[in-house]
Amino acid sequence: MLKEVFNKPLKWSAMKNLIFKEVDDLIIGSLGIVAFISFFVGGVVSIQTALNLTNPLIPRNLIGFATRQSVILEFAPTFISIIMAGKVGSFITSSIGTMRVTEQIDALEVMGVNSLNYLVFPKIIALLLYPFVIGISMFLGILGGWMAGVYGGFTSSDEFIQGLQMDFIPFHIAYAFIKTMIFALLLATIPSYHGYFMKGGALEVGKASTVSFVWTSVSIILANYILTQLLLSK
Amino acid sequence: MIEIKNIEKSFGDTKVLKGISTVFETGKTNLIIGQSGSGKTVLLKTLLGIHYPDTGTISFDGRIYSDLTADEKRELRTEIGMVFQGSALFDSMTVEENVGFPLKMFTKQTPKEIQERVDFVLKRVNLVDAHKKKPSEISGGMQKRVAIARAIVNKPKYLFCDEPNSGLDPKTAIVIDNLIKEITEEYDITTVINSHDMNSVMEIGEKIIFLKEGILAWEGTKKDIFKTDNEAIVDFVYSSNLFKKIRKAQNKEHGND
Ligand SMILES: Nc1ncnc2c1ncn2[C@@H]1O[C@H](COP(=O)(O)OP(=O)(O)OP(=O)(O)O)[C@@H](O)[C@H]1O
Ligand SMILES: [Mg+2]
């Protein structure tokens, strides 16, 4: 399937429009929900950490540190991707699946358009911007943590920022974005596969979206485990 | 002219097409008729190259499809127009974008030339005030017209229609049938139409092939259909009382009852 996606590409002028449309649907359209979730979950991580610091010997700057670590390493790349598997993934499966059951894909093929290239390639390209979404999520998650920590009276702004800078390992950022790119590829291809190769009618489109969500999330979780093992353990 | 020889097609263990040979003539409306499930759509999609036949050859004016290179196949496909059973319009595009799509994809025409051609074919199918609408905003009959417009916009040599008038009222159905027949004659296209509608058969059946369970059980013209003694087709046609009567009347007229 992947080979066909890159085969016999369309005219660039047509492809360009498709890519813009996908960026709009998949990336821009997701920013709102991602921003909302990141900000508040970042806040909750910060509050939870603060509430669990009952031992006075542990420094308060741990709040900033814990928020940074959890948001950058796991929350933004992995859990936002699971949410995106629900939002973007089921959108991809149902839109391609609908085109399959209403013979729109056959129509493309009959005209001589390589339908896999037409449908899937622009999505893969659009999702190259996915790290940008995750970057925003990281920023807002930490911002949310800072606001909840400072305005909730759990820590001072200085302590929190000191915690953010503590034991900073640059490779963690690389690790997070390598994961993000792999997840982006999974988010573009698995839902496309389930939509493209589905059979049946409107009811099956709904089922295919659900199945696609399950498989995309399972793959993201497994890929996360494997990548963490490969990249972080010595 | 499209010539098919001994086409067989199976899905898994079920053989859907069991050795079909015939000729579809240029400038005529060729009808494939038969009961639901008899293999009409599969035959049409095999002609289109959406399904590959297990055996047999399909030749488009002498070009044998399976012998063509990938580029030649693509070239051939730009000469084909198809009207799908459910219209298969792209629902993210407006009516005029749908019709202009094959031109945008496969020709070097400027946007202005494309617009002119789109306006022309939409007018040809008598659709003048729906240019900016989405497929979901127009009626089924209008969708069929748009699908026909899209199929003929790139001046095809071959036109395939899968039940072009299913789901339409009898009056609109006849209008669509006649539109296809006119276009076929006007542009000298080889047109193949799937149908199980006896009205279409009587309106536009210049050459008819009858499929029964994947076998070509009968072929002829609409005139022949009332004279034949072939049991399979008589049985198919006779499922309508109206046509029983017509057959009797016709046969009396010809004095061969
Ligand atoms: N992709 C496929 N995979 C497996 N079997 C198929 C496939 N397409 C069609 N069939 C089978 O082939 C047979 C013929 O189907 P086809 O769609 O050609 O019928 P039809 O004559 O077009 O009927 P209708 O008038 O209802 O459209 C059916 O039994 C169908 O189940
Ligand atoms: Mg059919």
TrEMBL record, chain A:
Cite a single GO MF annotation: phospholipid transporter activity
Pfam families membership: MlaE
According to the record, the segments passing through the membrane are: 26-51, 71-92, 124-152, 173-193, 213-232
Query: Can you quote a single GO CC term?
Result: ATP-binding cassette (ABC) transporter complex
Q: Which domain of life is it from?
A: Bacteria
Q: Which residues form a coiled coil?
A: none
Protein keywords: Membrane, Transmembrane, Transmembrane helix
By its UniProt entry, which PANTHER family does this protein fall under?
ABC TRANSPORTER PERMEASE PROTEIN-RELATED, PROTEIN TRIGALACTOSYLDIACYLGLYCEROL 1, CHLOROPLASTIC
State what protein this is by name: ABC transporter permease
Gene source species: Flavobacterium orientale
From TrEMBL, chain B:
> What's in the keyword line of the UniProt record?
ATP-binding, Nucleotide-binding, Transport
**Segments forming domain ABC transporter:** 2-238
Which residue ranges traverse the bilayer? Answer: none
InterPro entries attached to this UniProt entry: AAA+_ATPase (IPR003593), ABC_transporter-like_ATP-bd (IPR003439), ABC_transporter-like_CS (IPR017871), P-loop_NTPase (IPR027417)
Which Pfam families does the record match to this protein?
A: ABC_tran (PF00005)
The record's section on Gene3D superfamilies has: P-loop containing nucleotide triphosphate hydrolases (3.40.50.300)
From which residue to which does any coiled coil extend? Answer: none
UniProt keyword NAD present: no
**Which molecular-function annotations from GO does this UniProt entry contain?**
ATP binding; ATP hydrolysis activity
**PANTHER family (UniProt xref):** INTERMEMBRANE PHOSPHOLIPID TRANSPORT SYSTEM ATP-BINDING PROTEIN MLAF, PROTEIN TRIGALACTOSYLDIACYLGLYCEROL 3, CHLOROPLASTIC
Name of the molecule in the record: Phosphonate ABC transporter ATP-binding protein
